[in-house]
Specification:
Blueprint (H helix, E strand, L loop, with lengths): L2 H11 L16 E4 L2 E5 L12 H14 L14 H14 L3 E5 L2 H12 L6 E5 L4 H9 L3 E5 L4 H10 L7 E6 L11 H10 L3 E5 L14 H4 L8 E5 L9 E5 L1 H10 L1 H5 L5 H16 L2 H20 L10 E7 L1 H13 L2 E2 L2 E2 L9 E6 L6 H17 L5
Parallel strand pairs: 2-11, 4-5, 4-6, 6-7, 7-8
Antiparallel strand pairs: 1-2, 3-9, 8-9, 10-13, 12-13
Helix pairs in contact: 2-11, 3-11, 4-5, 6-7, 12-14
Length: 391
């Protein structure tokens, strides 16, 4: 097992070995790390719900009624009434006929992709910048994976043309919002192409739920494509502030996944505290869109001011704000100096992003105040100038 120590050392020499910090406080706009309070621009807590009192109260109440663990897989004895209620509510929220709940967003991709296209004659069309969970789910299928250049509809059309006569099932899978760059999939064009070539469509809306669409209903709602996307895949660990994964679509699709998808058949159901917290998060999202609007106001302000300072924020169209630095070592130094100045923003480098595009990814939240944003901009500016990233 000596290869592990060698590879860890090689990561350190290449500047790819990361520091994993431990929070000593609940998730929030400010967090305590190593005895100090720092502004948090790292988490996916888009709407500030991770530590929301209504979620905590719902969990406390439901634990007294339902307990903690499900005790079994969904298909044996692990389906409790709250699981069914959350699935019904999620389907309604997404504007779909039905939804199936699984343990995480990663598991949702593992549940959908190998189940719909399992065979050697099947084809998967996958965006070149799709998330690792999509890539791993594709690997679990025996289908041939055809990568098309990122959001390049001409390249996608060429590859669909080249495989028009292929036998077997065909599925296109794309992220809705690409997590490292913050750009949005060209879903209307994708849907049209897939309809023309008789290809199933699936979108992983992990960073779109709670962010895009009316009141955060996601990318399908954002583009008004209800009923035209075969599968919506999502996570409840970001804007919802909890844990869990979901796949939504037709009643037939959900029934098929319920009886075929391995994460549903061979892994215990989501815990009851998670289910309770997600129900409370849905209540908040369905009441009004104030948190979603605040998220976008904060994101637009931060991105605009950082651009004015001269930072390269890439092609983001969402509150995700990448500051592209280049080399991994430079990005890690930038992150370390930000932390010393009181701002927590982790460096992201290869293999999460391509070599030469290491960055700081600033993740804004509806929980951030105007003063928080002012502090963030001033800190980025001071450290950026000191390191020669901006003038």
């Amino acid at each position: 097992m000596s290869f592990m120590a060698r590879e860890i050392e090689a990561m350190k020499e290449a500047g790819l070995y990361g520091t994993i910090r431990t929070l000593d406080s609940p998730q929030g706009a400010w967090v305590s790390i190593e005895g100090r309070n720092v502004l948090n621009l790292c988490s996916n807590n888009y709407l500030g719900l991770c530590n929301h009192p209504r979620l905590a109260e719902k969990v406390k109440d439901d634990v007294d009624v339902w307990g903690v663990g499900p005790g079994a897989v969904r298909t044996i004895a692990g389906t409790l009434r709250p699981h069914v209620e959350l699935e019904r509510r999620l389907a309604s929220f997404k504007g779909a006929e039905a939804a199936i709940l699984v343990q995480s967003g990663f598991c949702a991709n593992l549940a959908v992709i190998p189940t719909l296209v399992p065979g050697e004659e099947d084809l998967i069309y996958s965006d070149a910048l799709n998330h690792a969970s999509i890539i791993d789910a594709c690997r679990l299928s025996k289908a041939r994976v055809i990568r098309y250049e990122h959001s390049d509809m001409d390249d996608l059309r060429r590859k669909l043309e080249e495989t028009r006569g292929a036998r077997g099932r065909k599925l296109l899978i794309t992220d809705g919002v690409f997590s490292m760059d913050g750009d949005i999939a060209r879903l209307p064009e994708i849907v049209r192409l897939c309809r023309d070539f008789d290809v199933m469509t699936a979108v992983d809306d992990a960073h779109g739920e709670g962010v895009l669409g009316r009141g955060g209903r996601g990318i399908v709602d954002h583009f008004d494509l209800h009923g035209q996307v075969d599968v919506e895949i999502g996570t409840l660990s970001k804007a919802f502030g909890v844990m869990g994964g979901v796949a939504a679509g037709s009643a037939t699709l959900v029934d098929y996944l319920r009886h075929k998808a391995r994460p549903n058949l061979f892994s215990s159901a989501l815990t009851l505290p998670d289910v309770a917290a997600n129900l409370a998060a849905l209540d908040i999202l369905e009441e009004d869109d104030r948190l979603v609007r605040r998220l976008w106001q904060n994101g637009n302000r931060l991105k605009g001011e950082l651009k004015e300072l001269g930072f390269d924020t890439g092609r983001s169209e969402t509150p995700i704000t990448p500051l592209i630095i280049g080399e991994a070592a430079d990005a890690k130094r930038f992150s370390a100096e930000l932390f010393e100045a009181g701002l927590f923003a982790t460096a992201i480098a290869f293999p999460t992003v391509p070599r030469g595009t290491a960055r700081i990814r600033a993740m804004i939240s509806a929980a951030h105040s105007d003063d928080d944003l002012r502090f963030a901009v001033e800190t980025f500016a001071a450290v950026g100038r000191r390191l020669g990233i901006i003038r």
